[in-house]
Protein backbone atom coordinates (compact mmCIF):
# COMPACT_ATOMS: atom_id res chain seq x y z
CA UNK A 1 0.00 0.00 0.00
CA UNK A 2 1.26 3.45 -0.88
CA UNK A 3 -0.27 6.88 -1.47
CA UNK A 4 -1.33 7.55 -5.07
CA UNK A 5 -1.87 10.85 -6.80
CA UNK A 6 -5.26 11.49 -8.36
CA UNK A 7 -3.75 10.81 -11.79
CA UNK A 8 -2.28 7.49 -10.63
CA UNK A 9 -5.51 6.50 -8.91
CA UNK A 10 -7.65 7.17 -11.98
CA UNK A 11 -5.11 5.47 -14.27
CA UNK A 12 -5.31 2.20 -12.29
CA UNK A 13 -7.03 -0.58 -14.23
CA UNK A 14 -8.97 -3.14 -12.23
CA UNK A 15 -8.63 -6.78 -13.35
CA UNK A 16 -11.70 -8.09 -15.14
CA UNK A 17 -14.19 -9.49 -12.66
CA UNK A 18 -17.64 -11.00 -12.97
CA UNK A 19 -20.24 -10.73 -10.24
CA UNK A 20 -20.40 -14.02 -8.39
CA UNK A 21 -24.06 -13.32 -7.55
CA UNK A 22 -25.79 -10.77 -9.74
CA UNK A 23 -27.26 -7.38 -8.84
CA UNK A 24 -24.21 -6.59 -6.71
CA UNK A 25 -25.02 -9.19 -4.07
CA UNK A 26 -21.55 -10.77 -4.20
CA UNK A 27 -18.47 -9.80 -6.17
CA UNK A 28 -14.94 -11.25 -5.91
CA UNK A 29 -13.36 -10.55 -2.52
CA UNK A 30 -16.58 -9.27 -0.96
CA UNK A 31 -18.55 -10.40 2.09
CA UNK A 32 -22.22 -11.29 2.53
CA UNK A 33 -24.17 -12.26 5.65
CA UNK A 34 -27.40 -14.27 5.46
CA UNK A 35 -29.32 -14.08 8.73
CA UNK A 36 -32.69 -14.90 10.19
CA UNK A 37 -34.48 -16.31 13.23
CA UNK A 38 -34.66 -19.96 14.22
CA UNK A 39 -36.13 -22.24 11.51
CA UNK A 40 -36.14 -19.62 8.77
CA UNK A 41 -34.49 -21.96 6.22
CA UNK A 42 -31.01 -20.44 6.63
CA UNK A 43 -29.02 -23.65 6.27
CA UNK A 44 -31.12 -24.95 3.37
CA UNK A 45 -30.79 -21.57 1.64
CA UNK A 46 -27.03 -21.88 2.12
CA UNK A 47 -27.02 -25.38 0.60
CA UNK A 48 -29.03 -24.18 -2.38
CA UNK A 49 -26.70 -21.19 -2.90
CA UNK A 50 -23.65 -23.46 -2.56
CA UNK A 51 -24.84 -25.75 -5.33
CA UNK A 52 -25.95 -22.92 -7.63
CA UNK A 53 -22.57 -21.18 -7.35
CA UNK A 54 -20.69 -24.44 -7.88
CA UNK A 55 -22.84 -25.14 -10.96
CA UNK A 56 -22.99 -21.59 -12.33
CA UNK A 57 -26.79 -21.76 -12.33
CA UNK A 58 -29.13 -18.89 -11.38
CA UNK A 59 -29.98 -18.57 -7.69
CA UNK A 60 -33.53 -17.36 -7.05
CA UNK A 61 -33.42 -15.45 -10.33
CA UNK A 62 -29.97 -13.92 -9.80
CA UNK A 63 -27.20 -14.85 -12.22
CA UNK A 64 -24.15 -16.58 -10.75
CA UNK A 65 -20.60 -17.13 -11.95
CA UNK A 66 -19.29 -20.71 -11.88
CA UNK A 67 -17.10 -20.89 -8.77
CA UNK A 68 -15.19 -23.35 -6.63
CA UNK A 69 -17.03 -23.36 -3.30
CA UNK A 70 -15.93 -24.50 0.15
CA UNK A 71 -18.82 -25.03 2.57
CA UNK A 72 -17.82 -25.14 6.25
CA UNK A 73 -20.72 -26.41 8.37
CA UNK A 74 -20.51 -26.55 12.15
CA UNK A 75 -24.06 -26.82 13.50
CA UNK A 76 -25.63 -30.00 12.13
CA UNK A 77 -24.20 -33.52 12.79
CA UNK A 78 -22.46 -34.91 9.70
CA UNK A 79 -24.95 -37.77 9.23
CA UNK A 80 -27.96 -35.45 9.24
CA UNK A 81 -26.19 -32.92 7.03
CA UNK A 82 -25.24 -35.63 4.54
CA UNK A 83 -28.91 -36.66 4.37
CA UNK A 84 -29.93 -33.07 3.54
CA UNK A 85 -27.26 -32.69 0.88
CA UNK A 86 -28.02 -36.07 -0.67
CA UNK A 87 -31.74 -35.25 -0.79
CA UNK A 88 -30.91 -31.97 -2.52
CA UNK A 89 -28.55 -33.65 -5.05
CA UNK A 90 -31.14 -36.27 -6.02
CA UNK A 91 -34.10 -33.91 -6.00
CA UNK A 92 -32.43 -31.16 -8.03
CA UNK A 93 -30.20 -33.36 -10.22
CA UNK A 94 -27.16 -31.22 -9.44
CA UNK A 95 -23.78 -32.78 -8.75
CA UNK A 96 -20.92 -30.28 -9.27
CA UNK A 97 -18.43 -32.69 -7.71
CA UNK A 98 -15.25 -31.00 -8.96
CA UNK A 99 -16.27 -27.51 -7.77
CA UNK A 100 -17.77 -28.23 -4.37
CA UNK A 101 -16.07 -29.15 -1.11
CA UNK A 102 -17.46 -29.70 2.39
CA UNK A 103 -15.98 -29.50 5.87
CA UNK A 104 -18.12 -30.65 8.80
CA UNK A 105 -16.54 -29.64 12.08
CA UNK A 106 -17.57 -29.26 15.70
CA UNK A 107 -14.94 -26.78 16.82
CA UNK A 108 -13.32 -24.10 14.68
CA UNK A 109 -12.41 -20.66 16.01
CA UNK A 110 -11.55 -18.20 13.27
CA UNK A 111 -10.56 -15.46 15.71
CA UNK A 112 -7.65 -17.70 16.77
CA UNK A 113 -4.41 -18.47 14.95
CA UNK A 114 -4.95 -22.24 14.91
CA UNK A 115 -8.37 -21.84 13.30
CA UNK A 116 -7.08 -19.50 10.62
CA UNK A 117 -4.24 -21.93 9.88
CA UNK A 118 -6.77 -24.69 9.25
CA UNK A 119 -8.85 -22.40 7.01
CA UNK A 120 -5.72 -21.38 5.07
CA UNK A 121 -4.93 -25.05 4.49
CA UNK A 122 -8.45 -25.89 3.28
CA UNK A 123 -8.58 -22.94 0.88
CA UNK A 124 -5.15 -23.79 -0.50
CA UNK A 125 -6.08 -27.47 -0.98
CA UNK A 126 -9.40 -26.76 -2.70
CA UNK A 127 -8.47 -23.50 -4.51
CA UNK A 128 -11.82 -22.19 -3.28
CA UNK A 129 -13.11 -18.91 -4.66
CA UNK A 130 -16.10 -18.69 -2.31
CA UNK A 131 -16.10 -19.82 1.33
CA UNK A 132 -19.45 -20.29 3.09
CA UNK A 133 -19.45 -20.59 6.89
CA UNK A 134 -22.55 -21.82 8.73
CA UNK A 135 -23.02 -20.41 11.39
CA UNK A 136 -20.99 -17.42 12.64
CA UNK A 137 -21.48 -18.06 16.35
CA UNK A 138 -19.57 -21.34 16.15
CA UNK A 139 -16.38 -19.73 14.80
CA UNK A 140 -16.00 -16.85 17.28
CA UNK A 141 -14.61 -17.58 20.75
CA UNK A 142 -15.36 -14.10 22.11
CA UNK A 143 -18.67 -12.39 22.77
CA UNK A 144 -20.70 -11.65 19.66
CA UNK A 145 -22.05 -8.50 21.33
CA UNK A 146 -18.59 -7.08 22.02
CA UNK A 147 -17.13 -4.79 19.35
CA UNK A 148 -13.52 -5.69 20.18
CA UNK A 149 -14.17 -9.44 20.13
CA UNK A 150 -16.03 -9.30 16.82
CA UNK A 151 -13.25 -7.22 15.26
CA UNK A 152 -10.76 -9.99 16.09
CA UNK A 153 -12.84 -12.16 13.77
CA UNK A 154 -13.55 -9.65 11.00
CA UNK A 155 -9.91 -8.52 10.85
CA UNK A 156 -8.75 -12.10 10.39
CA UNK A 157 -11.39 -12.65 7.72
CA UNK A 158 -10.17 -9.56 5.86
CA UNK A 159 -6.62 -10.94 6.02
CA UNK A 160 -7.90 -14.24 4.59
CA UNK A 161 -9.66 -12.42 1.75
CA UNK A 162 -6.49 -10.48 0.90
CA UNK A 163 -4.31 -13.58 1.07
CA UNK A 164 -6.49 -16.00 -0.92
CA UNK A 165 -8.63 -13.58 -3.00
CA UNK A 166 -11.80 -15.33 -1.85
CA UNK A 167 -15.33 -14.13 -1.20
CA UNK A 168 -17.16 -14.96 2.04
CA UNK A 169 -20.77 -15.84 2.77
CA UNK A 170 -21.58 -16.16 6.46
CA UNK A 171 -24.77 -17.62 7.96
CA UNK A 172 -25.92 -15.89 11.12
CA UNK A 173 -28.77 -15.78 13.61
CA UNK A 174 -31.13 -12.91 14.21
CA UNK A 175 -31.39 -11.04 17.51
CA UNK A 176 -34.60 -10.67 19.46
CA UNK A 177 -37.31 -8.60 17.81
CA UNK A 178 -37.86 -5.05 18.95
CA UNK A 179 -41.57 -4.58 19.59
CA UNK A 180 -42.84 -0.98 19.76
CA UNK A 181 -46.48 -0.49 20.78
CA UNK A 182 -47.28 -4.07 19.84
CA UNK A 183 -45.65 -3.81 16.38
CA UNK A 184 -42.38 -5.41 15.30
CA UNK A 185 -39.81 -2.72 14.54
CA UNK A 186 -37.81 -3.46 11.38
CA UNK A 187 -34.15 -2.89 12.23
CA UNK A 188 -32.84 -3.85 8.78
CA UNK A 189 -29.27 -5.18 8.79
CA UNK A 190 -28.98 -4.37 12.52
CA UNK A 191 -31.45 -7.17 13.26
CA UNK A 192 -28.59 -9.68 12.99
CA UNK A 193 -27.50 -10.79 16.47
CA UNK A 194 -24.52 -9.15 18.10
CA UNK A 195 -22.27 -6.18 17.55
CA UNK A 196 -23.05 -3.58 14.90
CA UNK A 197 -19.57 -4.38 13.53
CA UNK A 198 -21.14 -7.17 11.46
CA UNK A 199 -23.28 -4.65 9.58
CA UNK A 200 -20.44 -2.16 9.23
CA UNK A 201 -18.13 -4.85 7.85
CA UNK A 202 -20.19 -6.86 5.36
CA UNK A 203 -21.01 -5.69 1.83
CA UNK A 204 -24.39 -7.41 1.56
CA UNK A 205 -26.88 -8.42 4.21
CA UNK A 206 -29.74 -10.80 3.42
CA UNK A 207 -32.56 -11.44 5.88
CA UNK A 208 -34.83 -14.52 5.87
CA UNK A 209 -38.13 -14.52 7.73
CA UNK A 210 -40.90 -17.12 7.61
CA UNK A 211 -44.49 -15.97 7.33
CA UNK A 212 -45.43 -18.28 10.22
CA UNK A 213 -43.68 -20.88 12.39
CA UNK A 214 -43.00 -24.10 10.47
CA UNK A 215 -44.08 -22.51 7.19
CA UNK A 216 -42.69 -23.56 3.81
CA UNK A 217 -42.80 -19.90 2.78
CA UNK A 218 -40.27 -17.26 3.69
CA UNK A 219 -39.49 -13.71 2.67
CA UNK A 220 -35.94 -12.87 1.58
CA UNK A 221 -35.11 -9.19 1.91
CA UNK A 222 -31.93 -7.22 1.27
CA UNK A 223 -31.48 -4.56 3.99
CA UNK A 224 -27.88 -3.84 3.01
CA UNK A 225 -26.46 -3.86 -0.52
CA UNK A 226 -23.36 -1.71 -0.40
CA UNK A 227 -22.13 -2.71 -3.88
CA UNK A 228 -25.45 -2.71 -5.73
CA UNK A 229 -26.50 0.14 -8.00
CA UNK A 230 -30.19 -0.42 -7.23
CA UNK A 231 -32.21 -1.77 -4.32
CA UNK A 232 -33.66 -5.27 -4.59
CA UNK A 233 -37.26 -5.74 -3.56
CA UNK A 234 -38.08 -8.58 -1.12
CA UNK A 235 -38.59 -12.01 -2.67
CA UNK A 236 -41.21 -14.53 -1.57
CA UNK A 237 -39.71 -18.04 -1.62
CA UNK A 238 -41.58 -21.34 -1.37
CA UNK A 239 -39.68 -24.42 -0.20
CA UNK A 240 -40.40 -27.88 -1.57
CA UNK A 241 -39.62 -30.21 1.33
CA UNK A 242 -39.39 -33.24 -1.01
CA UNK A 243 -36.19 -31.96 -2.62
Summarize the structure.
The chain is of the alpha/beta class and 243 residues long. It has helices at residues 6-11, 42-55, 78-92, 113-126, 147-164, 197-201, and strands spanning 31-36, 69-73, 100-104, 130-134, 167-173, 178-180, 183-185, 204-210, 217-225, 235-238.
Radius of gyration: 18 Å
Helix content: 25-40%
Structure classification = alpha/beta
| Largest sheet: spatial strand order | 3-2-4-5-1-8-9-10
Unreliable residue runs: none
List the secondary-structure elements in sequence, H or E. HEHEHEHEHEEEHEEE
* Strand percent estimate: 15-25%
Give the count of helical stretches. 6
| Count of beta strands | 10
Calculate the terminal CA-CA distance, rounded to whole Å. 48 Å
For the report, how would you describe the main beta sheet? 8 strands, mixed
Shape: globular
Average pLDDT, all residues: 91
Amino acid sequence: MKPESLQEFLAWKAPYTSELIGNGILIPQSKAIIFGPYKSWKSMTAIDLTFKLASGKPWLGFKTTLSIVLMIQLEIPKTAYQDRVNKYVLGNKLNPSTNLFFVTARNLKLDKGWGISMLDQWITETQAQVVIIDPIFKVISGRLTDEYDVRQFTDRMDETIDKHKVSLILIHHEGKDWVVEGERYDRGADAAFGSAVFGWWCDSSIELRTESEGSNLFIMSFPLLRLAEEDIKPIRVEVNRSN
